[in-house]
Amino acid sequence: MDTIRINNLKIIARHGVYDFEKSKDGTFEIDLVLYCNLEKSGDTDELSDTVDYQEIISCTIEEFTKKRFSLVEAVANSVCNRLLAEFDIDKIVIRVRKPHAPIEADFKNVEVELQRVK
What is the reported pTM? Predict the structure, then answer.
């Protein structure tokens, strides 16, 4: 299966369990792996025969920011469901990192990974 990868897409949003997280912007980092057939676009060299990266990114940003979620798991699931419904992809892996998670520890980020199949 062929893949398209979008790495480290940064999106400003207000997701979190606590009120203070929902009241201020935080930067989330998203990786997407889209499993789809790229044979036709490889042969034709036509944008219309592939999954348009700009459309994927625009849809991801719109879905990620349309409402405030408490859990990163929930917003990641929402993005997966929308991308699978709107694009010709068979499977998606999404990773959402929250570098600013309010945890009393020295860490780089918290990351959630979901895999969904059409």
Answer: 0.92
Question: The CATH number of the domain where 57 resides is what?
Answer: 3.30.1130.10
Structural domain tally of the chain? 1
The Cα–Cα gap between 51 and 87 comes to: 7
Selection from 62, 70, 52 nearest residue 30 by Cα: 62
Q: Which amino acid is at 106?
A: D
> Contact, 39 vs 2, CB < 8 A?
yes
Q: State the DSSP code for 104.
A: S
Contact present, 79 and 57 (Cβ < 8 Å):
no
Please report the beta strands in the chain, taking only residues with DSSP state E, as ranges in sequence order.
Answer: 2-13, 26-36, 91-98, 110-117
What range does the domain containing 76 cover?
Answer: 2-117
pLDDT tens digits for range 58-67? 999 999 999 9
